[in-house]
Design goal:
The chain is about 80% helix and about 0% strand. It is mostly helical and about 450 residues long. The longest helix has about 35 residues, at about 325-360. The two termini are about 25 Å apart.
Amino acid sequence: MSQLTKEKQSSMGTKLAWCAGDIGFSCSWGVVTSFLTMYYTDSVGLSAAFAGTMMLICRLFDGVSDLIAGAIIEKTNSKIGKCRFWFCVSMLPLAISMILLFSVPTGASLMAKEVYAFATYFFMGVICYTMANIAYNSLLSRFTYSSQDVVSVSTMRTFLSIAASLGVSMVFMSALAKFGGIADAKAWRTMAIILALIGFILQMFTAIFVKEHDIKDQTDQEKKEKRKVLPIFLLVLKNKNFWCILIEYLLINAQFTSLYAYYARDVLGNANYVGVMNMAALIPVVALQPVLSKLVRKFGKRRIMLFAGVLATLQGVIVMINPYSAMFVLTGMVIGGLGRGVFMGLVFTLSADLVDDIRKKNKIDAEGVCYSTTSIGTKIGSGLGTAIVGWVLALGNYNATLEIQAGSTLTSMTMLLGVGSIILGAGMFVACYFMDINKTE
């Protein structure tokens, strides 16, 4: 970036248009993360163990597809910019893939259902969401002008997308009940169509109004350099901070949100508590965002994130005091939500910091590869979290036909929400400790 552009700020309209894209993702991938496992087990009739294993297998493919998508973006030259081009291309396939995902043929054999579930989950997660999400996140350093601009946009994005996720989670189960209930496959498909359409419309705002700056200068420079992707890959992969940031993304997204619907109904005794649990987890995240940039300026990004890791760990400690008490569970989730709020508000800026660090040290732009951490971490993290939920339910002998689950099933749920949260929080703290991008702050 030139010295002149460093002093500029993105317009509020551009910032809101970019945030609309992530709200769109909340309507698609966010719903998949929270409710797909229950759709598979309680409506389609698939086992929790199959759902978990299938999701993990797809996540392994994701590690490769994310890097390929980043490489494709790096090699692209377009009049509307390389990141914006691929975001526009991938929006419609993403919406279609979500509808297909929640349209498992009800009359098919068990094997046919499993094959269909794998194919559609692979299509949405490994292909459609990969390209859309990497292109979207790569736009951040292409339309912003300074590090302060990046922090401002990122906190706004987190605030709005989490608010959207909260809104969706609050109405999802009640809306599903009105359309036919958990066991009705048509009800799930109707919800998928509505949310896919809303998500697509929101992402249209991003595609139309968020424009990359200095496209001609970037294109001419890249043509002169005749950029080769492999050296960029190797350079980024050798950077310790890339792996620390990737781990942060993985742990932030592996939050077992698909467990909430089961936990509310079977452990706390009220299915409608799923909305309250999501409120406890997400409202602190939303409330923190308006003041997060001020806290960063006062205490530094690194110190704030280390403290947040401690808060995230405390969630599990408090839950384990009495995992059957709504008061203890919700209190723990509120405290953990404050910790996650810091990470969710700042983790996007870490990828931008990595881009700037590599640009300064090596004189190259590597947005596509650096921002692949966002997609890899989001998908593998959420997929791994969902997979773990499926495995734990299977180990606890979950039975979708029972109104009251066995004691072993309830124990498996409480251990996952409690001990699992401790492990995730501690991991976030350790990854931040070894990251040195913001060590001087």
